[in-house]
Amino acid sequence: xxxxxxxxxxxxxxxxxxxxxxxxxxxxxxxxxxxxxxxxxxxxxxxxxxxxxxxxxxxxxxxxxxxxxxxxxxxxxxxxxxxxxxxxxxxxxxxxxxxxxxxxxxxxxxxxxxxxxxxxxxxxxxxxxxxxxxxxxxxxxxxxxxxxxxxxxxxxxxxxxxxxxxxxxxxxxxxxxxxxxxxxxxxxxxxxxxxxxxxxxxxxxxxxxxxxxxxxxxxxxxxxxxxxxxxxxxxxxxxxxxxxxxxxxxxxxxxxxxxxxxxxxxxxxxxxxxxxxxxxxxxxxxxxxx
Length: 290
Ligand SMILES: Cc1cc2nc3c(=O)[nH]c(=O)nc-3n(C[C@H](O)[C@H](O)[C@H](O)COP(=O)(O)O)c2cc1C
Description:
The protein has helices at 32-40, 63-81, 97-106, 145-159, 191-209, 224-232, 242-245, 254-262, 285-289; strands spanning 9-11, 14-16, 20-22, 44-48, 85-91, 111-115, 137-142, 166-169, 175-176, 215-218, 237-240, 268-272, 278-282. It has 290 residues and is α/β, with parallel strands linked by helices. The strands form three sheets. It has an eight-stranded parallel β-sheet. Strands 9-13-12 form a three-stranded antiparallel β-sheet, with no helix packed on it. Helix 2 (63-81) packs parallel to helix 3 (97-106). It is globular, with a radius of gyration of 18 Å. The structure holds flavin mononucleotide.
């Protein structure tokens, strides 16, 4: 029987032997512990920045500085524990987006995953005319080919540079979802449908900028068969979140992991999250109260 090796995932000059990105998970779910464990096995480990400073003593009085300090510590801890690839996930909607991007670039993380909004602009303090020379590579997270087109068009025009990869997150993902509630079950918005749209959207930029731009599929990917399916559909890799939550290495509390382990299919519900998007969550006492 011949065995074929799973193809590596190249993002800029970085290569992950295993084409799996561990999705950034806030608040405090994916920090240096999970990220370095994933990186050590050849995947890409990602630290989530949402609420990262919550354990700093000045979190409430000096929010931005506390977040930045905590992020720097987590990046340094992750790097001390692995020689593999470490990314940082930053939501565009965060009020300290600029500070978190600056800190990650200063700490030379391998890549930045920018989602929850369109990363059209970047902090003015970055060398915006020489983005390609930075060791940190940029990977937007989108939910449509249209969003990918908007980002790539804007970057090409303003930075003469385009992102090095893109994550497309479909409606089956855990956490917040970039879709209207009525589209969640609509086959026109399935990941199988969105992936080729995003691949087509970035294709002209691969030619224009003479580089490969892998599209990474996310949302509801759980098994080796799922990974195979999306790679056959043209994905350069996959991003997985839920799958990692109940691992020993995950930074979440035991109670949080137990909620995942004990939950049944019917306990998973769609909620209207306070940020104005639908979200996929586990029905528990807290959800009932709010
Ligand atoms: C508990 C949890 C927290 C998450 N937090 C974030 C986050 O802070 N930023 C973000 O861009 N995505 C976040 N995500 C999405 C993941 O990065 C990933 O794209 C998603 O989990 C993929 O779908 P899957 O859970 O079906 O594998 C979160 C997902 C989960 C399950």
